[in-house]
Write a structure and sequence with these properties.
Structural class: mainly alpha
Helix content: 40-55%
Shape: globular
Pfam families: CxxCxxCC
Largest sheet: 2 strands, antiparallel
Strand content: under 5%
Number of helices: 9
Low-confidence stretches: 191-195
Order of helices and strands: HHHHHEHEEHHEH
InterPro entries: Puta_zinc/iron-chelating_dom
Strand order of the largest sheet: 1-4
Distance between the termini: 50 Å
């Protein structure tokens, strides 16, 4: 039986984190450890570096996905939090999808307002999703603690990918604009192609 008891879930999440770390392929660990120097030496433009980082993050996510309760159709995290994007990520979404930013910023989103790209509980821009979404991992047995009534109310162990975070910091620094804005202010609520 799956527990929704807080202490049991926290213990499970800690054990799950240790399990993931033990089972990560050594080549993938080495690749993550070497990310920052590769991006520091690269002469590529920030948008191309972001694409390469996202490709690596997809590979990394593929290795940890079997240990996460997150599945297609579970969209609780798409309602719970600010979904911050930078100018570089907005450019990436516009490059990879037909979606365009609104001509003017939209209103400040209310609590539990879903991401504008959430369609029938599925991310309609999954391949172009922002860093925050790619980086988000839940280590509990189920998504029980992701529900808006419980999300962020308790602390759970997290996975740390230091070099992924440092590489993203470098790329954003090189882009010249690392200021985050909530995606719901940038793109139309329907996920439409914008103005």
């Amino acid at each position: 039986m799956v527990s929704t008891d807080l202490l049991s879930e926290q213990k499970y999440a800690e054990q799950n984190r240790a399990r993931i770390i033990r089972r990560l392929p050594p080549k993938l660990v080495a690749k993550e450890e070497g990310l920052l120097p590769i991006f520091q030496k690269s002469k590529r433009k920030p948008l191309r570096k972001l694409e390469l980082l996202f490709e690596f993050m997809d590979e990394l996510h593929g290795a940890i996905r079997p240990y996460l309760p997150c599945k297609k159709g579970c969209s609780l995290c798409c309602h719970n939090q600010a979904i911050d994007v930078t100018e570089l990520e907005i450019a990436f979404i516009e490059q990879e999808t037909p979606h365009r930013r609104q001509a003017t910023l939209g209103p400040t989103p209310g609590p539990r307002q879903p991401c504008p790209f959430l369609m029938e509980n599925v991310c309609s821009i999954y391949e172009a999703r922002p860093f925050l979404c790619r980086r988000h991992t839940v280590l509990t047995q189920t998504s029980h603690w992701c529900h808006p009534d419980r999300a962020n109310a308790e602390e759970f162990p997290l996975l740390g990918f230091t070099e992924v975070d440092r590489a993203m910091g470098l790329i954003l620094s090189e882009s010249g604009n690392a200021s985050p804005t909530d995606i719901r202010v940038i793109f139309a609520a329907s996920g439409a192609t914008g103005n």
